[in-house]
């Protein structure tokens, strides 16, 4: 007898900027879907990238793909809230599948959004529960006017309610990153499918299977077999047959926005760490600052050698502005210590340009020790100012806002392309 199977998608984000890879993902879902398989998402399944940034409909540019794959269930990731609660709810109530949220403090806006559902597959009843990251308000940098409650308690309550429907399996669709381990330890569920963090996870905590992909933007998805001991395999989309209609739709959209326009050729492709450094240096030089600072996770990918406008915007596809702060040397020393402390890992860790910060070493600016009595200029994405991720940066230290940050990164790449061209000559 066949057993139920879950196809797990998460954190699609910037894959919408690559029509061929998006079409392969659609093809992979089509190929795997059968009468024993249900498709579930764990948030950030809307578009986050150059295409969403440039198009008037923003995150909703994901709709054609989403309607093609038609998930059976999903939850809401923090990026679903980038346009506010109303934007997230509009998405959740007008796209296929049940969008589940068990840990939102209730008000009338959430009518129609259920905490859980039961789907019958291969003759078995699968109870699905949705969890939003409890720090979504802080992560968004917006005044969302909503409260997300403790995931562990929310799952317990949802499990109790589902008991009346006698499910064979209890599965949590979570966009809470490492909090999944707390949910596993504090509840009695069979499987937790996770999102938010982009590192692959396949482990058991107190008998509960935890599964997380690197994200659809990395070209992966997971298949979970619900048998006596549920197991997970991670699959690549690389060999999947692309869906022509999906590819055509998104090629037309990217071309119409000018995202396929070539800027030129870099001396070599840049991997993610090198691109993080390029962004930090763009904030430094374009902000006429001593130091550039960026959260590594805010830089979404590397850059190819032949670079387009879409490639660059997709690296930092945010409406943040370039903020310039004036800091005391003492405050900059504190930031340097934060950068050198890998255990803090704010938003994937903080990267710098113009500042050398290493564990158990004297921090340097322009190869000189920081003078605690001097003042320094620091350029960064306004997101760091707004969300309070770096306590030393606030409205009191802010001295300039220099326009959209992505324009400064574009200018830095254009300069790098010109330099590479001059070198070739």
Number of domains: 2
Q: Structural class per helix/strand content? A: alpha/beta
Shape: globular
Low-confidence stretches: none
Determine the mean pLDDT: 91
Per CATH, the class of the largest domain reads Alpha Beta
The strand count comes to 22
CATH architecture descriptor name of the largest domain = 4-Layer Sandwich
Describe the structure.
The chain has 425 residues and is of the alpha/beta class. It has two domains: 5-247, Purple Acid Phosphatase, chain A, domain 2 (4-Layer Sandwich), CATH 3.60.21; 261-424, 5'-Nucleotidase, C-terminal domain (5'-nucleotidase,  domain 2, Alpha-Beta Complex). 32% of the residues lie in helices and 25% in strands. It has helices at residues 19-32, 50-54, 63-69, 84-94, 136-140, 151-162, 179-186, 244-256, 272-286, 309-315, 329-340, 382-387, 405-424, and strands spanning 5-9, 37-41, 73-74, 98-99, 116-121, 124-132, 169-175, 191-194, 201-205, 208-212, 220-225, 231-236, 262-265, 291-295, 306-308, 321-328, 350-353, 355-356, 364-365, 368-369, 375-381, 398-404. The strands form six sheets. The chain has a six-stranded mixed beta sheet, with helices on one face. A five-stranded mixed beta sheet has the order 17-14-21-16-22. The protein has a four-stranded mixed beta sheet with strand order 2-1-11-12, covered by helices on one side. Helix 1 runs antiparallel to helix 8, helix 6 (151-162) packs across helix 7 and helix 9 packs across helix 13. The longest helix is centred in the last third of the chain and has 20 residues, at 405-424.
């Amino acid at each position: 007898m066949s057993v139920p199977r879950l196809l797990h998608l998460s954190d699609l984000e910037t894959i919408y900027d690559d029509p061929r890879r998006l079409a392969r993902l659609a093809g992979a879902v089509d190929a795997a879907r059968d009468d024993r398989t249900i498709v579930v998402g764990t948030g950030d399944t809307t578009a986050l990238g150059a295409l969403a940034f440039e198009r008037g409909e923003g995150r909703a540019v994901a709709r054609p793909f989403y309607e093609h794959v038609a998930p059976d269930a999903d939850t809401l990731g923090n990026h679903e809230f980038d346009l506010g609660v109303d934007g997230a709810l509009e998405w959740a109530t007008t796209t296929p599948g049940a969008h589940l949220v068990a840990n939102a403090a209730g008000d009338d806006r959430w009518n129609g959004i259920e905490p859980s559902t039961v789907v019958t597959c291969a003759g078995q009843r699968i109870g699905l529960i949705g969890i939003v990251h409890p720090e979504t308000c802080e992560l968004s940098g917006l005044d969302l006017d909503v409260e997300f409650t403790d995931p562990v308690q929310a799952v317990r309550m949802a499990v109790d309610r589902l008991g009346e429907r006698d499910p064979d399996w209890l599965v949590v669709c979570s966009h809470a990153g490492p909090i999944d381990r707390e949910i596993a330890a504090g509840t009695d569920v069979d499987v937790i499918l996770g999102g938010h963090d982009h590192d692959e996870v396949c482990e058991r905590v107190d008998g509960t299977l935890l599964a997380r992909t690197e994200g659809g933007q990395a070209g992966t998805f997971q298949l979970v077999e619900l048998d006596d001991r549920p197991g997970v395999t991670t699959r690549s989309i690389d060999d999947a047959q692309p869906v022509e209609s999906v590819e055509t739709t998104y090629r037309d959209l990217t071309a119409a926005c000018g995202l396929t326009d070539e800027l030129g050729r870099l001396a070599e492709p840049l991997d993610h760490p090198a691109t993080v450094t390029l962004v930090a240096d763009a904030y430094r030089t374009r902000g006429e600052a001593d130091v550039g600072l960026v959260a590594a996770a805010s830089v979404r990918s590397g850059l190819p050698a032949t670079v387009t406008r879409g490639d660059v915007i997709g690296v930092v596809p945010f409406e943040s502005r370039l903020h310039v702060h004036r800091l005391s040397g003492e405050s900059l020393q504190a930031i340097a210590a934060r950068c050198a402390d890998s255990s803090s890992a704010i938003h994937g860790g903080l990267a710098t340009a113009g500042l050398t910060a290493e564990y158990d070493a004297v921090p340097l600016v322009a190869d000189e020790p920081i003078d605690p009595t001097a003042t320094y200029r620091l350029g960064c994405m306004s997101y760091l100012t707004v969300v309070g991720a770096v306590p030393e940066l606030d409205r009191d230290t802010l001295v300039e806002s220099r326009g959209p940050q992505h324009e400064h990164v574009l200018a830095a790449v254009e300069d790098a392309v010109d330099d590479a061209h001059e070198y070739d000559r």
